Amino acid sequence: MVPSPHVIVRIDLARVRASALAIRARAGVDVLAVVKADAYGFGAAAVVRAIDDVVDGYCFFSLAEILACDLRALTAKPAITFGPPGDADAALYRQHRVRPAVASVDDARRYRSADPILSVDTGMQRFACPPGDLRDALRAGGCREAMTHARTPDQVQRLLELTKGETLRLHAAGSSLLHEPAARLDAVRPGIALYAGAARVSTRLFEARDAAGPAGYSGFASPTGRHGVILCGYAKGLRPGPCLVDGCPSQILEVGMQSAFVACPPGARAGAEVVMLGEGVTESAVAEAWGASPHVVLVQLAGAGVRKPE
Ligand SMILES: *Cc1c(COP(=O)(O)O)cnc(C)c1O
Q1: Which of 54, 105, 163, 172 has the most CB atoms lying inside 10 A of its own CB?
Q2: Residue 294, ligand 1, Cβ within 6 A
Q3: What would the mean pLDDT of 46-55 be, rounded to a whole number?
């Protein structure tokens, strides 16, 4: 997506760092920061620089992402990839000191020299080794570490049962299980918990007027009797939901391809600031309005505009 020149994205890296510190203090185990998808749109290199002395390692989706942010120029800390290892040679993983997660006996064998991590299926049914192949895959890869994509504490328990008797470093928890002490195992893998609350996405009213009857495609009526237009639409991922106009809680009422209608407080004029994320407009509030996850909201809105330094 090409960022809109009308939308300004500010990333509060100090806040990301504070979240990393809080997670580390609370979890009491290694923190493997998830910086896949360009750190959820925040910029992987910038995030790594901001938290490198706080965390114990990094999780990406692919080796390509690691090369794209030139990770080895930024940090010597360990990095792992979650996605399918693809066709890259084990030697390339070794060269960049990256360990791939593997999900089959074949891949475990193929990437053995890169010290692979076995991803175990405990219910996610994606990028993970079926329990029946677990012992063979561990042997084939010489694995010292295993992980699972867990959504529930039961799935963490399942990982423990399946790997019983093996000497493995284990991890399972993303952000949703950070509050579960039993899910922490040897490391946690927070993604959204690092980023939530740290992006501010704003634009300005291009125009504003008192309504003259039903407006827009849908014939909406602004609850305040006044509405404005912003130059950001569903082509940039925007959907109807909460916002602030001139600091007042308001609503994005109707979204078009490259513009949207916003309900306005009575006096609001063209040029008034519209905050689409940040300052109390939380990822979860927007996610609820969108019928989507906070991850979707962050990635869409953090990618919708031009990134400005804090
Ligand atoms: C993306 C991902 C995470 C982080 O998820 P959040 O919900 O953003 O914390 C952790 N583990 C795996 C395997 C993932 O793919």
Answers
A1: 172
A2: no
A3: 98
